[in-house]
Amino acid sequence: AQQQLLPAQSRVEFSARQMGVPLQGHFKKFDAQLAFDPAKLATSRIRFTVDTGSATMGARETDAELPKPVWFNVPQFPQAIFESSSIKAQGGGKFDVAGKLTIKGTSVDVTVPVVLTQSGSTTTATGSLPLKRLAFKIGDGEWADTSMVADEVQVTFKLALTGVGKL
Question: Measuring CA to CA, which residue among 91, 76, 89, 71 is closest to residue 136?
């Protein structure tokens, strides 16, 4: 079965702290290419792309800054990409998905803990990943001061998928 992401039922969110105050945002546009078989993890692959220009924090002024070179540099790096290298079952619908995350031309090896649940024909993948924004030069220059904007950014996701085999 062809596996597909259901964007309308999915979310990719991020949270950070500016001067100690929590800020929330999300990406409006993202996609996944999947070849995931719970019975054949060795040959399973996941490629996830996020259009960095679709980031929104709900304020026009902030949203106008995010695409600029100091933050996501959308003209030069329009997408953040995660490509899996291995998927390991942890039992109970839990999986560790290891791979490369590339943002603004910088690639970092990450392992994302993912929980899968199934209801009818829909499989939902949820998880979170703490990132260091400065490792990707997000918020460079004057914004590199972590007392202004914390280095740690929490990315959380809920992805609704079709075509995934029984867990």
Answer: 71
Q: Residue 141: what are its φ and ψ, rounded to 5°?
A: 60, -130
Q: Compute the C-alpha angle 45/130/139, nearest 5°.
A: 110
Can you give the residue ranges of every domain in the chain? Answer: 4-162
For residues 165 and 92, give the distance between their C-alpha atoms in angstroms, rounded to a whole number.
15
CA-nearest of 160, 151, 150 to 32 is 160
Task: Give me the tens of pLDDT residue by residue for the chain, a chain 167 residues long.
Answer: 589 999 999 999 999 999 999 999 999 999 999 999 999 999 999 999 999 999 999 999 999 999 999 999 999 999 999 999 999 999 999 999 999 999 999 999 999 999 999 999 999 999 999 999 999 999 999 999 999 999 999 999 999 999 999 99
Side chain identity at residue 56, one-letter code: T
- CA distance linking residue 4 with residue 159, whole number of Å: 10
From residue 106, how far is each of 24, 79, 110 by CA, in Å? 23, 12, 13
Give the pTM. 0.94
**Both tokens assigned to 41:** 């993890």
Q: Which CATH class is domain 4-162?
A: mainly beta
